[in-house]
Design brief:
The chain has seven helices and seven strands. With 251 residues, it is of the alpha/beta class. Helix 4 links the parallel strand 4 and strand 5.
Length: 251
């Protein structure tokens, strides 16, 4: 691995076992960062990402744990600092995306989405804060969602959680500015990712289209995350930046 803009940095990427999370972990590794690969339960996927990081010449640590569990998150951060001696980057990517009409949704189903997507970002940020402060150039990138800006049928829990991530981003940018920590949100839209046969493409994808009629790739989102984690992006703070091919053009 040649010297690049993230050399010497250490990153935690939650939900990094596949799709966008995997692409982010690899992009940060290509930038020179050591990467903690987090997954909720699928160790085989996380181990494969770690091997891919190492194939790039980077260093990786796998940590299996649910970001909705504060104790598990603290254990992950402790392991990262023990292994690598520091922490500079947190990418809050872990999320659940389900579809169900609001009238049929019970509170447990509502709470499950918020627990992982929104509370998980809270737990991870709190656990990482001391180490990010010591970094001097700490970076938090939260991963948003297109439907938080457009709305969507059968996704009240997901839309609410992802809208909360936008508010969380803006609030943290203010709270952590004095610590030299930037906080931004990257909002993917219409990204082509592998899906199980029993889980079709989200219905709201069918009501939107990109300017070019092409779906994005996880790597398109990962490239923006890598940029925000680098030295050239230090003046960008508190922003929600869309990577959606023009599917949504709002502010």
């Amino acid at each position: 691995m040649t010297t690049t803009e993230l050399t010497g940095k250490v990153a935690i990427v939650t939900g990094a076992g596949r799709n966008i999370g995997r692409a982010i972990a690899l992009a940060l590794a290509e930038g020179g960062a050591s990467v903690v690969v987090n997954a909720r339960s699928k160790r085989a996927e996380a181990d494969a990402v770690a091997r891919a990081v190492e194939a790039l010449g980077g260093k990786a640590l796998v940590h299996i744990g649910d970001v909705a569990d504060a104790a598990a998150v603290q254990a992950m951060v402790d392991a990262a600092v023990e292994q690598f001696g520091r922490l500079d980057i947190l990418v809050n990517n872990a999320a659940l995306r389900r579809e169900k009409p609001f009238a049929e949704m019970d509170y447990a189903e509502w709470r499950e989405i918020l627990d992982v997507t929104l509370d998980g970002a809270f737990h991870c940020t709190k656990a990482c804060l001391a180490a990010l402060r010591k970094s001097g150039t700490g970076t938090i990138v939260n991963i948003g969602g297109l439907s938080a800006h457009t709305g969507a049928r059968d996704r009240a829990h997901v839309v609410t959680a992802k809208a909360g991530i936008i508010g969380f981003t803006r609030a943290l940018a203010h709270d952590l500015a004095d610590d030299g920590i930037t906080v931004n949100c990257v909002v993917p839209g219409l990204i082509g990712t592998p899906r199980p046969k029993d889980k079709p493409e989200p219905a709201h994808h069918l009501t939107h289209q990109t300017i070019t009629d092409e779906r994005g790739k996880p790597e398109d989102v990962a490239a923006m995350v890598r940029f925000l984690c680098g030295p050239a992006a230090r003046y960008i703070n508190g922003q929600a930046i869309h990577a959606n091919g023009g599917a949504y053009l709002g502010a």
